[in-house]
Amino acid sequence: ETGVTQSPTHLIKTRGQQVTLRCSSQSGHNTVSWYQQALGQGPQFIFQYYREEENGRGNFPPRFSGLQFPNYSSELNVNALELDDSALYLCASSLVEGAREQYFGPGTRLTVT
Amino acid sequence: GENVEQHPSTLSVQEGDSAVIKCTYSDSASNYFPWYKQELGKGPQLIIDIRSNVGEKKDQRIAVTLNKTAKHFSLHITETQPEDSAVYFCAASRVYGNKLVFGAGTILRVKS
Known about the structure:
The complex is a heterodimer of chains A (113) and B (112).
Chain A: E1 5-7, E2 10-13, E3 19-24, E4 31-37, E5 44-50, E6 53-57, E7 64-68, E8 74-78, E9 87-94, E10 103-104, E11 108-112
Parallel strand pairs in A: 2-11
Antiparallel strand pairs in A: 1-3, 3-8, 4-5, 4-9, 5-6, 7-8, 9-10, 9-11
Chain B: E1 4-7, E2 10-14, E3 19-25, E4 32-38, E5 45-51, E6 56-59, E7 62-67, E8 72-77, E9 86-92, E10 101-102, E11 106-111
Parallel strand pairs in B: 2-11
Antiparallel strand pairs in B: 1-3, 3-8, 4-5, 4-9, 6-7, 7-8, 9-10, 9-11
């Protein structure tokens, strides 16, 4: 069984730029959720994707957007980066039926300078 | 709004002792409560979870209890070992499989 993978591992961007982060879900999972984890804090829910559509969204502005592909992998896009966007971005995959536990990937560390 | 408070923020125990971490949630509609362990440089790892129709669940040295009336749930680790040292997060969700609301985390140090 393949776990959740994310790329890249680390990323440094300049304020105002755009970034795309990628996630491959665990084998057999059809749902992907994205979380932002600031240093020393718990993860905060950004949004979830199921069947290539957004299936719930947290309190994040529209410049945070996502995609899910037919193979269930997903991208998180952030436009007009701000210094406060510096964080660990976590992807979690799960099933939408039956056992729905969320399993996390290792994350992408984004630094905005 | 939805909020999960977690205590203590740090916890130091001697190897072999027990550790207890407590969480309180605000959304009475919450019905799923997972616990995650996060080691340095890694993503959170699910260690145990409980749903609202169950008051207690145990898996070897780890147990979770839930009091829906008081909106409290707790993680109990017995016979702690140095490899239990990590940051532990509680979370709550009103829709099983969807948005998790996390606590701020507890840094557990197990001294050998």
